[in-house]
Structure formats: structure tokens, C-alpha cells
Amino acid sequence: MTFTMARSIFQELLDAAWVAAPLEACGLLAGIGGQITRCYALTNADASPDHYSMKPEEQFAAVKDMRAAGLNMLGIWHSHPASPARMSAEDMRLAYTPEVVYVILSLAEAGMPRLGAFLVRDGVARETTLTIHDQEGI
Fold first, then answer.
1. Are 28 and 75 a contacting pair, CB within 8 Å?
2. What number of other Cβ atoms are within 10 A of residue 10's Cβ?
3. What is the separation of C-alpha 131 from the centre of its chain, rounded to a whole number of angstroms?
4. CB contact burial 58-78 (16+ within 10 A = b; e otherwise)
5. Which of 40, 79, 121, 126 could serve as 17's disulfide partner, Cβ 3.0–4.6 Å?
6. How far apart are the C-alpha atoms of 70 and 92, rounded to whole Å?
7. Closest-CA residue to 33 (of 71, 77, 68)
8. CB atoms within 10 A of CB 40
9. Residue 30 burial by CB count (10 A; 0-12/13-18/19+): exposed, middle or buried?
10. What's the pLDDT at 10?
């Protein structure tokens, strides 16, 4: 499966990651089909530069909002403030949610944020396509 998001959604991810840096930022992504139309920036309860966990009450509120809007949870995202946009051993260990895309935003290269998108099946992460486009609603 491939995924798309508007540049404005990417900018929301990037802004949340910069605000949280040097700690990891995290959240959920929602939409329909492979089109990501909403970003939820949640609190990293671990307040760590190396890992994250989301506050359950924020997760539940985001899922409730998704359902009210007729959206599905499509992804889980987090930032890597100082490492590449790849699934770490910890990311793999915590990849519990099937059928979602795991999106990692790396801030490791100054001025060059990088996105990685992965589907995890049977304990194996496979990179998938995540396209950023300039138009809303595509």
C-alpha cells in the first residue's frame, strides 16, 4: 500500500518535531484509504530523545475525534531528533499495531528533514511509499 499526505500535514509533523527537539515527538495519523488527512501531535510521556510512549488519554481522544470525523487511523508517527528515518530495534519491539504505517521523521541532518514510512508484518519492517503533495484533498 502507498500513502499520501498534503504538504500542510507534513508541516504539522515537522513543527511538532522541532518543538519537541531534542526529545522525540509522537502522534497518530488519520485519513481514508492511503490518504492521510489529519495529524495528531501527542505528548511523549517518556520525555526522551531515544524513545516515546503516548499518553493513553490523548490516544483515546484522538481516536474518538477520528471516528467522529469518519476517518480511520492510518499511521503512528514519531521523530528521530538525531538519527536516521529508519525503524530502530526499539521501534520494531514496540510495533504492536497491525495494518498501520509507521512514519519516522528524522531531524538528524540540519535543514534536511527526512521521512521514512514502514509497514511491519511478521516482525519485518518494509519501507513503503509516502508521497507529499502540494494540494489539499488529493
1. yes
2. 19
3. 14
4. bbeebbeebeeeebebbbbbb
5. 79
6. 29
7. 71
8. 22
9. buried
10. 96
The three cell numbers locating residue 49: 530523545
Determine the straight-line distance between the first and last CA of the chain, rounded to whole angstroms. 16
| Residue ranges of the chain with per-residue pLDDT less than 50 | 138
Q: What is the pLDDT of residue 61?
A: 98
For 88, phi and psi rounded to 5 degrees? -80, 170
Residue at 103: amino acid letter = V
Neighbouring residues of 11: CB distance < 8 A, sequence distance ≥ 6: none
Please state, in angstroms and rounded to a whole number, the distance separating the CA atoms of residues 102 and 46.
Answer: 19
What mean pLDDT value characterizes the chain?
94
- Dist CA 50 CA 40 (whole Å): 20
Q: Are 74 and 3 in contact (CB under 8 A)?
A: yes
Nearest to 27 by CA among 1, 35, 15: 15
**What is the per-residue DSSP string for 77-127?**
EEEESSS-SS--HHHHHT---TTSEEEEEE--STT--EEEEEEEETTEEEE
Q: What is the pLDDT, as a whole number, of residue 138?
A: 46
pTM for the predicted model, two decimal places: 0.94
